Amino acid sequence: MKQFFESLRTEDWVVVWVSIPLLLLSALIPALLPNVPSTLATLDAWRNIALLFVIVLVVLYVGNRLLGRPLKGLFPSLCVVFAVSLLAQLVAKIPGVAYWGFESVFFSVLFGLLIRNVWHVPAWMKPAIQGEFFIKIGVVCLGATILFSDVMKSGIFGLVQACLVVAIVWLFAFRTARRAGVDERSAMILSSDVSICGVSACITAARVVGGDDRKLSYIVSLVLIIVVPMIYLMPWLAELILPHLFPADVAQEVAGAWIGGTIDTTSGVAASSMIVGETANSHAVIIKAAQNVLIGVVAFFIALYLSARSGHGGQAPSLGIVWEKFPKFILGFVAASLVFSLLQSGGVFVPDARGKLAEPGVAKMFSTVFFSLAFVCIGLDTRLKEIVSRENRNILRSFLVAQAFNIVVTLLIASLLFGVLKPMWS
């Protein structure tokens, strides 16, 4: 029995335990919880910041206590890490920055890199630099934002497109990256990014495969930089090609499905599809949401594959070995998605006047806060010369080839499903 309780104090399980109170707060009292302000000019903004800091501090202290890690020095170290992550989130909330799709994690790793490479990281700052711990909490909280109702909104055609695009593009991107000399774990991260939904998929896959955080920060940066030209490239291609193939109303649907399946960030999808039209925008956002739901499915099968491959001497491992190697925090991700989906479908969560659900929104806020903290830590632990390595150049080439393939394949699938089969079905 003692051994059983000790097994529940590994980092993967501890992450789940400390995430449960965050999700309970999100579900029970979302209106009373703080959020990240867009300005520091008001007293209420500073109150929100103070409450968020207290929540993060309690989570860090409890987590380290359960893991048996030293508590000394956590407070001053977290003050700096939290301040840098807050700055990143404030910059990401600037309307002009948000429009271009640059998320807070991009600025988090950028500011962390600047501190690490321009100055240095003193010993007193290191206790709270726990990137993996923060990322896993963010992943579990992210699960609460993945609602099954989003899949239902897309209908059978949206669901089929999401599954086909994710499966085909993931396999192509993985094979392309491996042939280019990218290591297996980084190739899995890159494939999840291109095929599913960018940053969230990258981070989730990285924690499942145990990839190098420095390569993760590089891939995330690629995602957020490449999405900028994609926002304008995709509407231009849609208007160049689709009117010659389909009637105007059908072309709008196909354009939305195409954009929703290719652009890697939700904000980028919204901005890009709105250039085409409102019909394209509504379809693109729904298709993107349907693909987002597959984060957990892909992460689960990656984890199962890596766990099942851990046998010795070429023999298949026992179920016990598979369970031992399986990343338990993914179970927290799946459970959060399931519970919040059931609460939403049962009418417990009620949309506001804008049709938004407050409870998953608060969980998304917690996820963003912990992701931002994690990427500050990654930046503080990374030297610039590691980013410009030869293998990272191989990652860049693989990413561009996979993204080009994604554009072509998604066009074909969206055209078949929304341009041919759906009108026939109607």
Briefly, what is this?
By secondary structure, this protein is an all-alpha fold. The protein has 19 helices and no strands. The protein has helices at residues 2-7, 11-28, 43-67, 74-92, 95-99, 104-118, 131-143, 148-179, 184-197, 199-209, 213-241, 248-262, 266-276, 278-308, 319-325, 329-345, 358-380, 384-387, 390-425.
The share of residues in helices is: over 70%
Kindly provide the radius of gyration, computed on alpha-carbon positions and rounded to a whole number of angstroms: 21 Å
- Low-confidence stretches are none
Q: Count the DSSP helices.
A: 19
> Major sheet, described briefly?
none
Counted beta strands: 0
Gross morphology? globular
Coarse structural class: mainly alpha
The span between the termini is 60 Å
SSE pattern: HHHHHHHHHHHHHHHHHHH
Mean pLDDT: 84
Query: What is the beta-strand fraction?
Result: under 5%
Task: Note the topology.
Blueprint: H1 2-7, H2 11-28, H3 43-67, H4 74-92, H5 95-99, H6 104-118, H7 131-143, H8 148-179, H9 184-197, H10 199-209, H11 213-241, H12 248-262, H13 266-276, H14 278-308, H15 319-325, H16 329-345, H17 358-380, H18 384-387, H19 390-425
Q: Any overview of this molecule?
A:
Helices cover 78% and strands 0% of the residues. The chain is mainly alpha-helical. The termini are far apart. The longest helix is centred in the last third of the chain and has 36 residues, at 390-425.
Characteristic terms for this protein:
0% strand; 426 residues; mainly alpha
